[in-house]
Amino acid sequence: MKKWVRPLVGAFLLFIGVVWSLQGAGVVDNSEVMSGESQWLGIGLVVAVVGVALLVSGVRKLRADRR
Prior knowledge:
The protein is an all-alpha fold. It has one domain (2-66). Helix content is 75%, strand content 0%. The chain is built from 2 helices and no strands. Helix 1 (5-25) runs antiparallel to helix 2. The protein is elongated.
């Protein structure tokens, strides 16, 4: 079960990062605090990049373990 933790956390962080980025850009308008604030765009992008890195490395590890 530990094998799936990294890709799951990566997917979660990617999702959260995209949502935060869209809120920061003003595309998604459901938060009084985050909507239209450029700092959340930057934070979201960083979180999304970390999520992609974890997701890709986790999937690669899963594929390598199958061989």
